[in-house]
From TrEMBL:
It catalyses: D-glucose 6-phosphate + NADP(+) = 6-phospho-D-glucono-1,5-lactone + NADPH + H(+). This is Glucose-6-phosphate 1-dehydrogenase. Pathway: Carbohydrate degradation; pentose phosphate pathway; D-ribulose 5-phosphate from D-glucose 6-phosphate (oxidative stage): step 1/3. It is an enzyme of class 1 (oxidoreductase). Residues 11-179 form the Glucose-6-phosphate dehydrogenase NAD-binding domain. One of its GO terms (molecular function) is NADP binding.
Length: 491
């Protein structure tokens, strides 16, 4: 259940960093403009800056990354801003924070800093008596493996109860992900078929057409498994497969997600294929003999009554043909063909497109016009709209200020997710793939009949779908920059 008290101040550490510039300042402005946020906002960093410089940084951030706004809202944000410049290892920094908090009793401390500094900052806040009724938001990654995640949680719990720790995963704040959860439990027609009796397989894809974007040193530390699979994609699987919570409370929702994580079978080395796009090792900050994966595909099982023996095929990668996040739930074939041979009929499916736009559709077979009983594939579109809505950090920071923990990860779920991927974190074989393809050919053996399914484009409301067996690894013909080769729809 969400706490009833609203935070009466917001302190964000890492105020001069990249995350603050790209995400936090635009979200703070939106909270001021739309939610009427009116509490002190205290930025903390070690940059040798003053308040005026922080305001200029905020203005530049909002100009580049924010949405349309009025000058009055920006000036109201500036009136709320405070700044403390200091080293996180200096007790004087936290005494200055205490002074800026003034009469505030229930601050929200947002740690937009590396996890290695979490313990230092939380301990400093505790010694300065800034934690007694506080909430603390921590950014991912929540550890690098199961052991480090447990150590990080132990550090945080030395100073804070679990109910005051908000582990933020911006992916859960996205509108399309919220729509997945709502669609499942606001409608009853899915429930009778949402189980192993009717679902043949599930595929989840997170494709990015770009590379590392100058973050070579960072990516060398994480790789695709740590960056998106352990958190974003397993969270999507949990939302897709969890049972309905008994009520709408935050803890009831998190209880059901935790049950799914506990039922996930740990991955084995033979259930993963790792890839690295050609040219990755030439990116600044990347080792010339790097074995870090920029692509990962896994086959996952959930050992629950509802999902036993249903394979979940999950893949994510950089430099793939498009930008898309999608869930494809393939249903079983009819038990006996009546009008078509089994090889002609495509299976029914439910598709959740989670980005960049939002689209929910159901795949069915309908009769072609004419005298023969021949079928064709049709998409019954249940929902289609732009994902341009509330930005994730605006939603999540607003929820944290209100004490709503629904969209934040709980300790046991974080540790269970690490338990799932722990066996595949160590160096394994990495297969090279060409940029602009769907990863290494070796990944095809994981999916049923080598058939990965994904959406390449939305054009005029018509989705173009390509089976991985149809030109999935084209590299023989060059295309103009930005061009995509499309195939007729295939399921």
């Amino acid at each position: 259940m969400a706490q009833e008290t609203h935070s009466d101040a917001l302190v964000f550490f890492g105020a001069t960093g990249d995350l603050a510039y790209k995400q936090i300042f635009p979200s703070l402005l939106a909270l001021v403009a739309r939610d009427g946020l009116s509490v002190p906002i205290i930025g903390v960093a070690k940059a040798g800056w003053n308040l005026d410089q922080l305001k200029e940084r905020a203005r530049a951030s909002i100009r580049e990354h924010g949405q349309a706004h009025d000058e009055d809202s920006l000036q109201r944000l500036f009136q709320l801003l405070r700044y403390v410049d200091g080293d996180y290892r200096d007790p004087g920094t936290f005494n200055a924070v205490k002074k800026e908090l003034g009469q505030a009793q229930r601050p929200l401390h947002y740690l937009a800093i590396p996890p290695s500094l979490f313990g230092t900052v939380v301990e400093g806040l505790s010694k300065a008596e800034c934690l007694s009724q506080a909430r603390v938001v921590v950014e991912k990654p929540f550890g690098r493996d199961l052991a480090s995640a447990r150590a990080l949680n132990e550090t945080l719990h030395r100073f804070l109860p679990e109910s005051s720790i908000f582990r933020i995963d911006h992916f859960l704040g996205k509108e399309p992900v919220q729509n997945l959860l709502f669609f499942r439990f606001a409608n009853v027609f899915l429930e009778p078929i949402w189980n192993r009796q009717h679902v043949r397989s599930v595929q989840v894809t997170l494709a990015e057409s770009f590379g590392i974007k100058g973050r070579g040193a960072f990516y060398e530390e994480v790789g695709a498994v740590r960056d998106v699979l352990q958190n974003h994609l397993l969270q999507i699987v949990a939302l897709l497969t969890m049972d309905a919570p008994f009520c709408s409370s935050a803890e009831a929702l998190r209880d059901e997600k935790a049950r799914v994580f506990k039922a996930m079978r740990s991955l084995s080395p033979d259930s993963v294929v790792r890839g690295q796009f050609r040219g990755y090792r030439q990116v600044p900050g990347v080792a010339p003999d790097s074995r870090v994966e920029t692509f990962a595909a896994v086959r996952l099982f959930i050992d629950s009554w509802r999902w036993a023996d249903v394979p979940f095929y999950i893949r994510a990668g950089k430099c793939l043909p498009t930008d898309a996040t999608e869930v494809f739930v393939e249903l079983n074939h009819p038990p006996r063909p009546i009008f078509e041979a089994p090889t002609q009929a495509s299976p029914n499916f439910v598709r959740f497109r989670l980005g960049p736009d939002v689209r929910i559709s159901i795949g069915a077979r309908a009769k072609k016009p004419g005298t023969s009983m021949e079928g064709e594939d049709v998409d019954l579109v249940a929902s289609q709209h732009s994902a341009a809505a509330m930005k994730p950090y605006e939603r999540l920071l607003g929820d944290a200020m209100r004490g709503d923990i629904s969209l934040f990860a709980r300790q046991e779920s974080v540790e269970e997710a690490w338990r799932v991927v722990d066996p595949i974190l160590h160096d394994g074989q990495v297969h090279e793939y060409e940029p602009g393809t769907w990863g290494p050919r070796e990944a095809d053996v994981l999916a049923p009949q080598g058939a990965w399914r994904t959406v390449l484009a939305d054009s005029g409301g018509v989705q173009v779908v390509r089976d991985a067996r149809d030109e999935a690894h084209r590299s023989d013909e060059a295309l103009p920059e930005g061009a995509q080769r499309l195939k007729p729809a295939a399921r």
